[in-house]
Amino acid sequence: MVTRRAMLAMLGCCAAVPIGCASAQPETEVRRRAPDTGGILTPWTTITGGWRVASDVPVPLRASRPVVREMLRRPVGVAVRGDTVMIADAGAGTLWRYDRTRDALLAVAPFSGHAAEQGVSMQIDADFSTWIALPAEHAVVQFDANGRVLRRFRDDVNAARPVALALRPERGEVLVADGASAHVVAFNRFGKAFRYHQAGATPLQSVAALSWGPLGLYVLDRLAQQVVVLGARGEIVALVGENQLVQPRAMAVDRAGRVFVADEADQRIKIFRGAQLIGSHGGPQFGRIESLAFDANLLHAADSVNASIHVLLVAPPSLERPLQP
């Protein structure tokens, strides 16, 4: 039984804090959390795992064997095309194919050979094969939808340590960044190098990610703390995030030319149009964003610390909110 004295003590506590006795800690957390800006990214869903399946056959309602719920362990790379999400899981040592419509995970192939200090660069081609850069194996590999190796090529002269790639399907090109020399080489689909992309008078210091966009080839230079946009002849056509990024780790570019960069320093995804910062999203809910991938109006972020793929709805440019000065 609560005594009258105890009840008066509790009432006195609430009177001392008008917004409620239990509200002091959440208020502190709100003050500590940087607000989202620009209204560009909205959390849509989170992929933490799926029903493990052995084939593309739909999971029966009454299976002869129990259907196991497989959880992601340490996703370090992500690529998306429609309802197909390819996930490189370093914790499970597996390349997963996630089917969004069935909430199902299919183990496509064993996964190894990535660099521990950065995320995995991968992309789904038009035929739903997956290209992936494996720096520790000094190779670029193309898997078909069922995990069979279609192509595997290495070039110890031009790309001894492939750390990032981007596809140009209209030209049949695979653009590969060499982590050893910090330059980008264009290969054909059979692994023959035929063109170099070097940043003109301002050489690249490093390459963490590549993306093809409206202005050309977007190169995330982690050491220089910026994104360098290269034109057709390797000339610099734009610099993005200069003096606004601290520890950039992953990058993606949408059809409108907006550049999305995951900054490890404050665990936020920062959005740029040209040199202008137009929004940011994130904070404590992110652990470490290793890879970013676009499909239509959805941005997928591989979070290795929280063992999940964050899926964010991307607002069109017409719905952006102006930043407050």
Give the low-confidence spans.
1-33, 59-64
Number of helical segments with 4 or more residues: 2
Number of individual domains: 2
Provide the CATH architecture of the largest domain.
6 Propeller
- How many strands, what sense, and barrel or not for the largest sheet? 6 strands, mixed
Rg to the nearest angstrom? 23 Å
The percentage helix is under 10%
Shape: globular
The whole-number mean of residue pLDDT values reads 85
Q: Got a strand count? A: 26
Report the end-to-end length measured between terminal Cα atoms: 55 Å
Write down the CATH class of the largest domain.
Mainly Beta
CATH-defined topology of the largest domain: Neuraminidase
Which strands sit side by side, in order, in the main sheet? 3-2-7-6-5-4
Q: Which structural category fits the helices and strands?
A: mainly beta
Structure description:
Strand 12 and strand 13 (173-178) form a beta hairpin. The chain has 325 residues and is mainly β. The model is unreliable at 1-33 and 59-64 (pLDDT under 50). Strands 3-2-7-6-5-4 form a 6-stranded mixed beta sheet, with no helix packed on it. It has a 4-stranded antiparallel beta sheet with strand order 1-26-25-24, with no helix packed on it. It has helices at 4-16, 24-32; strands at residues 41-47, 49-53, 69-71, 75-81, 84-89, 94-99, 104-110, 122-124, 130-134, 139-143, 149-153, 162-168, 173-178, 183-188, 193-197, 209-213, 216-221, 226-230, 236-240, 248-253, 259-263, 268-273, 276-282, 289-295, 298-303, 308-314. The chain contains 2 helices and 26 strands. The radius of gyration is 23 Å and the shape is globular. It is 7% helix and 46% strand. The chain folds into 2 domains: 1-32, no CATH class; 40-319, 6 Propeller (Neuraminidase).
